[in-house]
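Run log, item B.
One chain of 420 residues. Sequence copied directly from the ordering sheet:
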Amino acid sequence: MPPHLPRTPEQFTPIREATLSGTTQHNGGLAHRSLGIPHGYGLQQGAWVQELSMLRPTPGSLDSRRLEERPGTMPTALYLAGGRAASDCRVVLLAPGGVEERRVSTLAELEAIKAMGLPLWVRLTGLGQPHVTHALLNTLEVPEAFHPLLLDTPQATRVDSLGEVIAVVLHRLRFSRDPLELESDQVSMVLMRNLLISIEEAPGQTSFDSLLHWLQSKTPAAAGDDLDDLLHYMVDNLLDGIFPMLEQMANRLDDLEEAALRDPKPRILGKAYQLRNNLRRIRQQLWPLRHQTLLFLRQNQPVMGPEGLQGFREMAQNVEQIFESCEILRHQCDAVTEAHMASTGNRMNQVMKTLTIVSTIFAPLTFIAGIYGMNFENMPELNWSYGYLSALLLMGMIATIQTIWLQKRGWFEDWTATRR
C-alpha cells in the first residue's frame, strides 16, 4: 500500500481546540465531527486516547441505536447458545517477519501482545460475557463512547468516526435453507492507529478466514498501513455476500411467477410476500450506508490511506448496485402478484362462462317446459299422441343448435388450461 499522502497544517485541528473547531456534517438531525491528528503530533497511543476522551462528540451521534427486531432469524449456532455465544478472542500480529495468529485466553496475554508495539487485528467472536468484552476493549484503549454501539445487539447499520477512531456496524445476511428464511448476525469493526478490531456475534463463521490467508500470503509482509485496506475488505466481504442472495431470490421469483400462471394457489402469494419482506429487510439494513458512507468520505480521516478511501468509494457503488437490484426484485414481486391475480381472474371468468353456457342452453328448454306445464284445458298438443315425443325432439334440437353455435364462437375453450 502506498504511504499516506502528506497533509497541510490547515487540515489538522489542535487537541486543545477540538471542542471548538472542526468539520461538522449534518444529516437527518445527526452531526458527525471529524478532527484530524497528524502522524507526528507527538502523542503516544495512551496519551492520544486520553486526549480523545476530552473530545465532545455531537450529542446523540454515538448513542446506541438498537433495532426493534433482528433483521432475520438467529443462526443455528447462536440459537443453540441461547442468543449469546461464548466469547473467543484471537489476535493476528502483523510482524515484519510475517503474519501470526494467536489465541488469547486472558487479559494479561492480550496486554503482553499489545506491549510488543506491533500492528494488531483482534478477532472477537461471541458476546456471551459482556464484562469480559468491555475489559478487552478497555485494554485495547477503545474509547468508552464506542462500547454501546459495538456491543448492543441488534444494532442499526452505521458508520461513525471520532478523531482517530472509526466504527462500522453491519449485519451478515444469509439464507438458512431457502430464500424464504433470512438469517442475520451482527458484525462490528473498529479501526484505530495500528489496531483493527472485529466483533462477530455468531461463532463458527469463516467469512474472514480468506482475509487472514491474504494477509499471510501478502508480499511484502503486511504492516499497519494495511489495516485500513483490511477494514474495507471486511465490509466488502459482507456486502458481496448479498449479491448471490439476490440472485437466488430472482430465480425463486421466476419460479413463483411461472407457478402463478400455471396453477395459482394462495400459498404462492404467501411466498411472494415473504420474499418481498426479506427484500425490505435487506434494504433497511443498507439504507443508512447510502448517506453515512458519503458523509464518511467527506471527513478528514487520519487513519485512512488513499487505497482505503478508494475502497470505501467502491463500497458506496456496491450499495447503490444492491439498491437497484432490490428495486428490480421488488417490481418482480409485484409481477408475481399481478400474475396470480390475473390467473385467478381467468379462472373466475371460466367458471362464470360455464355457468352462462348452461343457463343459455337450458333457458329455451325451460321456456318450452313451462308452456306445456300450465295445465290449461284448451291445449290441442296435450291430446296429441305424439306431443310428448315432439316436445322432447324440439328441446334436443334447440340444445344441439345452441351448443354448435357456442362451440364455433369459442365458448368451450378452457382459458385456464395448464401451460407447458
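Observations after the first pass:
- The first strand starts at residue 23 and ends at 27.
- Confidence is low (pLDDT under 50) at residues 1-45, 47-54.
Flagged for discussion on Thursday.
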